[in-house]
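lol forgot to send this yesterday, sorry. struct tokens for the thing we talked abt
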């Protein structure tokens, strides 16, 4: 299998780096038209346009080739952030795979310029909601990615298919006897 050979070339030492993290989040703009902050937050998420990604990445193709989520999102079972792989990580395969495709040429050009791909964040919270989220305890407790992100095996780039409202979090915490203390999720 070509992919198996490629996987071997991807040594752990070249694991994904942190690319676009929370710092890349768009900050909400509150206007006096919002009576409460909550209204403003809802408005912000309600009207936030779908992010347009700089490269037409495809989850479907990579997952159909047998890659698993933590192969790229290395932080997901380690700590708070799942993380997005760096361009160097992508290029461990794409130096050899599909090099003639326009999207891969764009990828190679980022690497040649010494830049990372400016991926736009899809999920996330307004800073004013003071939410702290942590992936690792969920993965350890066996909560599937699908519950919070939908079925990624049929996606190209990620889209926001699940609304991460407070009710959504608390509903599942109640069902699973996980903590519903305010400070579990808020700082
Ligand atoms: C383990 C190897 C591997 C890694 C790592 C990898 N890819 Fe791929 N990628 C593939 C394979 C295999 C294909 C399918 C190629 C084909 O169909 O010709 C593919 C296809 C693609 C395509 C579709 C190309 C086209 O137009 O048909 C894009 C875009 C892409 N990869 C981007 C990325 C990005 C961005 C990363 C890093 C986040 C990445 N890949 C990491 C193996 C990999
Ligand atoms: C209990 C819900 C939940 C589960 C389960 C979950 N996620 Fe997330 N995920 C979130 C939330 C909430 C965010 C936004 C976090 C933030 O911005 O603080 C997020 C963000 C992300 C991000 C953006 C980058 C980052 O570092 O945060 C990626 C990638 C991601 N998740 C991948 C995964 C993968 C892969 C799995 C399964 C192995 C998974 N998630 C399981 C809720 C979940
Ligand atoms: C080959 C690498 C690769 C694999 C494997 C992979 N992803 Fe991703 N993922 C990416 C890249 C690159 C992005 C950034 C582009 C985008 O948003 O689609 C991303 C974005 C995401 C996001 C949106 C992050 C945000 O901005 O909030 C989620 C959620 C996510 N992936 C979940 C998953 C899940 C669940 C799986 C396994 C079923 C998975 N990914 C497998 C590379 C990968
Ligand atoms: C589908 C079920 C489910 C959803 C949805 C969910 N959680 Fe959880 N959460 C759990 C489980 C199960 C645990 C693990 C409890 C344990 O380890 O005892 C957990 C643990 C946590 C922890 C760690 C608590 C600790 O003791 O360290 C935090 C923080 C957290 N969740 C925040 C959130 C937030 C914020 C959301 C919404 C964005 C969310 N969760 C959505 C099931 C869920
Ligand atoms: C299981 C996780 C979880 C718990 C427990 C939780 N919250 Fe939240 N809360 C959230 C999430 C996630 C949001 C953001 C929702 C959104 O952006 O739509 C939020 C939003 C909020 C907001 C609106 C944010 C704003 O700035 O307007 C308030 C207020 C709030 N929570 C108060 C509380 C209080 C008080 C408690 C304790 C009784 C609590 N929360 C417990 C997850 C949680």
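and heres what i got for the seq, position by position
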């Amino acid at each position: 299998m070509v992919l198996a050979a490629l996987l071997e070339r991807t040594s752990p030492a070249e694991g994904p780096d942190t690319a676009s993290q929370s710092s890349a989040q768009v900050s909400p703009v509150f206007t006096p038209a919002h009576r409460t902050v909550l209204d403003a937050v809802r408005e912000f998420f309600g009207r936030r346009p779908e992010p347009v990604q700089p490269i037409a990445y495809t989850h479907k193709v990579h997952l159909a080739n047998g890659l698993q989520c933590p192969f790229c999102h290395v932080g997901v079972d380690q700590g708070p952030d799942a993380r997005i792989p760096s361009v160097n990580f992508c290029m461990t395969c794409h130096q050899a795979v599909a090099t003639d495709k326009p999207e891969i040429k764009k990828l190679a050009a980022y690497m040649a310029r010494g830049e990372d791909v400016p991926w736009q964040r899809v999920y996330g919270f307004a800073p004013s909601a003071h939410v702290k989220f942590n992936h690792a305890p969920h993965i350890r407790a066996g909560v599937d990615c699908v519950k919070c992100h939908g079925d990624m095996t049929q996606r190209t780039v990620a889209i926001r298919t699940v609304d991460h409202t407070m009710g959504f979090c608390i509903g599942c915490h109640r069902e699973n006897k996980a903590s519903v203390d305010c400070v579990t999720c808020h700082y």
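Confidence is low (pLDDT under 50) at residues 1-33. anyway ping me if u want another try
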